[in-house]
Amino acid sequence: MRHSPPTWPRDEVAALVAELVRRPSPSGKEAAVAAYIAAWLRDAGIAADLVDTAPGRPNVTAEVSRGTSGRSLLFFGHTDTALPTEGWLTDPYAPQHRDGRLVGLGAQ
What pTM was computed for the model? Predict the structure, then answer.
């Protein structure tokens, strides 16, 4: 039996990504953005925790349970970004919508 994943409106997901772009998170200093993600997940009703892997570098863990046994799926990503380099025509921490895409540091 297939189960549908949780879904969020596209504009809510875009708002989340824009908020993440606004929050600088260079390598080694991503604790605040990890805490934001964990809080966002909890507000959405998803159990989420922060697990320290190194000082100031927590991982976010979250679980969506359907109450049944079966297959699991693991998503793995990172919350740090590189520091802005020369060549930005706009503030890299000020997300903008261009041609249907969100543009800002860390957004792809």
Answer: 0.82
Is 50 in contact with 58 (CB distance < 8 Å)? yes
| Residue pair 18/91 in contact by the 8 Å Cβ criterion | no
Average pLDDT across each block of 10 residues of the chain; the chain has 108 residues. List them in order: 61 89 92 94 90 90 81 80 89 91 85
Query: Which of 7, 15, 11, 8 has its CA nearest to residue 104?
Result: 15
Q: Which residues contact 79 (CB under 8 A, 6 or more apart)?
A: 25, 30, 33, 34, 37, 60
Distance of CA 25 to the CA centre of its chain: 11
How many residues in the chain?
A: 108
